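To: structure subgroup
Subject: Chain for Friday's discussion

All,

I'm putting the inputs and outputs inline so they're searchable in the archive.
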Amino acid sequence: MPRTLRTLLTDDLLERIHDRAATHDRENTFPHDDLRELTQAGYLGAFVPSDRGGAGLTLEEVAREQVRLAAAAPATALAVNMHLVVTGLAALLVARGDESVAFVLDEAAAGEVFAFGNSEAGNDLVMFGSRTRAERDDEGGYRFHGTKIFTSLSPVWTRLATFGLDEQHPDGPRLVHAVVGRDGTTTKDDWDTLGMRATQSCSTVLDGAYARPEHVYRALPPGPSADPFVFALFAVFEILLGAVYTGIGRRALELGADATRRRTSFKFEGRAYSQDPDIRWKVADAALVQDGAELQVFALARDVDERVDHGARWFAQLVGLKVRATESARVVVDLALRVAGGGGYSSGSELVRLYRDVLAGIYHPSDDESAHATVAASVLGPLDA
């Protein structure tokens, strides 16, 4: 029996979001109307189980929605992605019997907007080390001191999932993962970038931001960990990130193909470029890459949903997906520009915006170096001591 995939985003909603995207990019402004409409559509509760007031979508279903949303407005998709990462990892853990993050689902159902505040300048350990200081109080809560970069949703978040290092923990140094509110935080006005401008991923200064004891859900030793939280975080983050960039590729292929139908060749007596064998080859190349990207994103998301056992290869699969999806999107956008002609080079061209947006994929974790080290270890074993 065919599976029925549920959806929350209507074509009309996506068209309105698409129509606003160019203005937000040009003006470097946050898409408040997009967020309002997505909230009204129940999209911020996509991962929240139905018995907690949400839509209860699977990871595969949300990944498919993120591809569609990114095709309409990449920056909007990337911004809301961070809320979906936090709620998605919570949903995955709760479904597997871990109630430590159940509060995330309840607060999301109540209208809280979660951001993802983990990245730090100069921290190439990413999730396995932190420059942020975590100070425990007598009640078991924590205050955080440090600066987080690339905090998408910075103008609107009400809850920030973050972490820092507690060097005084009785069991030795621990990376403490928790959720804080706006108190004790400052948002820098430092987002004026090449692409993904509407995310408004400004830096967040944590100056005593407080996590109540019930909002502290992990204290892990620095370094790689087999804790289910780490798997849930990587699985949801890498797959949904791959979905966003795959959506960019989908839209770029559509724009490139449309351009070849409009453009006519003087050399070939006015025939459309879509009839030129060389142009058709390039479009086919882009489609081959795009088809593979979409299939791998949805397949790996389905594996998470169905609890497929990839064993020690899981992390290699996840970080490999991120690299392949972001690099594939760059290839597709580049090919689309090549077949679209000189008109696509205009600053007002949607393809130019996609070209700038897709470059942000370079900077998300896991980066090329980390991903290749993970994949090499999964195939060849660890480096000799």
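Points worth raising on Friday:
The chain has three domains: 11-109, 114-220, 228-380.
Residues 89 and 206 are 23 Å apart (CA to CA).

D.
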